[in-house]
Amino acid sequence: RIKASGLKLRFCTNETQATREKFVKKLQGMGFDISVAEVTAPAPAACRILKERSLRPHLLVHNDLVPEFAEIDKANPNCVVIGDAAENFTYANLNEAFRVLIGMEKPVLISLGRGRYYKETDGLKLDVGAYMKALEYACDVQAEVVGKPAEKFFESALAEMGVPPQQAIMIGDDIVNDVGGAQRCGMRALQVRTGKYRPCDENHPHVKPDAYVDNLAEAVDVILQQL
Amino acid sequence: RIKASGLKLRFCTNETQATREKFVKKLQGMGFDISVAEVTAPAPAACRILKERSLRPHLLVHNDLVPEFAEIDKANPNCVVIGDAAENFTYANLNEAFRVLIGMEKPVLISLGRGRYYKETDGLKLDVGAYMKALEYACDVQAEVVGKPAEKFFESALAEMGVPPQQAIMIGDDIVNDVGGAQRCGMRALQVRTGKYRPCDENHPHVKPDAYVDNLAEAVDVILQQL
């Protein structure tokens, strides 16, 4: 319905446990009309940064994300890229990433997101942000975060659509990463009362969505009504 | 020579990869006149805190340290104690410690030290401080640090000797954890130019030892000369 109305559409995700191909297949299976070219995700955003700055990464990421970096030179690394590596967050791999970083004259750490934790069927898991903090502390550096809520990430999505922030609206379930991040870029933002949403979000000390909707379908209704 | 002079002596260590028994055997093998009763170490200091506050720990520590907590009730944990767990810092163990913490109404995290990293024969390793930061961030808590440079830790050592800080002197190789920590307690402190010492320590922005000595033997000379 969004597409049929003539509005431009992009999907912004912090997913770093899989390539965009896998992510898109999953959403297609749920009935979404979506293609890889419509997805803004941290790994390709990081690849652009790596190319622009001639950075060669040591990767500490999920095995399924590695193909996103296929075209990037990884020999003789001069930065570390960390994502939600899940089972790859071993003691040995963390020490190795640390040694690469601490061995640099000026350590460069790029983190695909800054999430604290997330829930899976077998329980809560530490997210990439926790491991980012461990490396930041050990090396006395500050990571560059790629992904929501980084302004640059939203700006990429807007540039890909060719739309100024004032003419764009973000729909998301995460009060800080989706709503707060988009608003800081000058976009408006709706929070859906599904997924990560919690009632206490409505009393958030810093972030106030432009409106609440009960679910994604209602968000579409609200947007199309105002065209 | 220190003991023969009548001075009181204690050994303050942040060692958390082994019991005091193992630590003492190692030093005895190097020729030190030392017994377990003369050692102030983070694990027994943590045990005192656990008993005082009726805390039952979930332990994320090195296997060799576990015996130090033999007398502590660990059923139905209401806090997490983290030490340099080395190979025990697995993805599964970190997630488990995190779940115990996040499940508490008011998470209590006790960290045996806050070191960033250390060197072993096979290279640099992340120390307990890095994993402490990961859990702090994920749970939005601040850890209580037991061990140098915490004031309470030095105060314990002084109390065990029955000596006020003004009458005590610390000898150490670590400008921040040994020298800075002891001085903040009102003690004087010598830095030895061995071990962790680096020439740049002599330009440290915040900490200035009361004197430098080339090694431990010279520290003993200097102290005994001034009696």
Automatic annotation (TrEMBL), chains A, B:
Named cofactor requirement(s): Mg(2+)
Catalyzed reactions per annotation: diphosphate + H2O = 2 phosphate + H(+)
Organism phylogeny: Eukaryota, Metazoa, Chordata, Craniata, Vertebrata
Keywords: Cytoplasm, Hydrolase, Magnesium, Metal-binding, Nucleus
Top-tier EC class: hydrolase
One protein family per Pfam: Hydrolase_6
CDD domains, per database record: HAD_PPase (cd07509)
Subcellular location: Cytoplasm; Nucleus
Descriptive protein name: Phospholysine phosphohistidine inorganic pyrophosphate phosphatase
